[in-house]
Specification:
- The protein is mainly alpha-helical.
- It has a domain at 74-198: FAD/NAD(P)-binding domain.
- Helix content is 36%, strand content 3%.
- The longest helix is centred in the last third of the chain and has 20 residues, at 174-193.
- The structure holds flavin-adenine dinucleotide (FAD).
């Protein structure tokens, strides 16, 4: 990984790269080497990984493997409220299966699908999350991408609704453009959120 903000305490220098060891058990005798999914043969992995300073004598419990995500072709199968087009009253998709990638994205689409399912259970039509919001942009991406070549995505600024030409010409600074996009996204999300009946409010009533 990139050694952003890290210095070697022995030399004060920034290293070329760093590896993250994630503790796997309470005994702290098993660690996951983050981000080492690869195709190398196991013998080669042991040889190469032992070249990393500190891992010269490591014992490898499992070797890196490439994992494959399971996901449906959301642009062909889902509507804007994460419902299966051919079974919109009862089947919704979220998380990795729906074509989003990452912990936050999976949790967020899970929450969204839950809210939509609650609307359906009340006999109401779910209100789609606005495209301007970050979550709306992600859902917009998975439901509008090219179905012939669909690839899962994380949320990035690229997915957010672009600013109008006039604003882009006026605001040259990328950080400022992103700030405007975030401000709009939050405002759109808040407006939509205020229309959603909250279970806690129902419980209080
Ligand atoms: C090695 C690796 C590293 C990753 N690192 C990161 C990271 O650092 N940051 C990040 O944001 N994302 C990371 N991801 C991606 C992230 O893990 C996924 O995007 C996210 O976990 C997907 O969440 P999910 O709830 O949709 O699916 P999952 O987390 O896969 O959950 C699905 C659950 O359904 C269960 N299940 C499956 N079939 C059935 C069935 N028939 N009946 C009942 N239950 C069933 C499974 O056992 C599982 O518990 C990583 C993924 C991998 C593989």
């Amino acid at each position: 990984m990139k050694p952003v903000g890290l210095r070697d305490p022995r030399t004060g220098q920034t290293p070329w790269a760093v590896v993250q060891l994630r503790k796997e058990n309470l005994r702290a005798d098993s660690y996951n080497l983050v981000g080492f999914q690869n195709h190398l043969k196991w013998g080669d992995q042991a040889r190469v990984l032992r070249l990393i300073p500190g891992l010269e004598n490591a014992r490898f419990l499992r070797y890196g493997q490439i994992h494959r995500n399971t996901y449906i072709c959301a642009p062909a199968l889902l509507d804007e409220t994460l419902r299966l087009k051919i079974e919109p009253r009862t089947i919704l998709f979220a998380g990795q299966l729906s074509g989003v990638e990452g912990y936050t994205e999976s949790i967020a689409t899970g929450l969204l699908a839950g809210l939509y399912a609650a609307s359906l259970a009340r006999g109401e039509e779910p209100t789609p999350i606005p495209r301007t919001s970050a979550l709306g942009s992600l859902v917009h991406y998975i439901t509008h991408a090219d179905a012939k070549d669909f690839q899962p995505a994380n949320i990035t600024f690229d997915l957010l609704e672009p600013l109008e030409e006039e604003t882009r010409k006026r605001v040259r600074d990328k950080k400022e453009r992103h700030r405007i996009q975030c401000e709009r996204a939050l405002a759109a999300f808040d407006a939509w959120w205020s229309t959603i009946p909250h279970p806690t409010a129902e419980l209080r009533a």
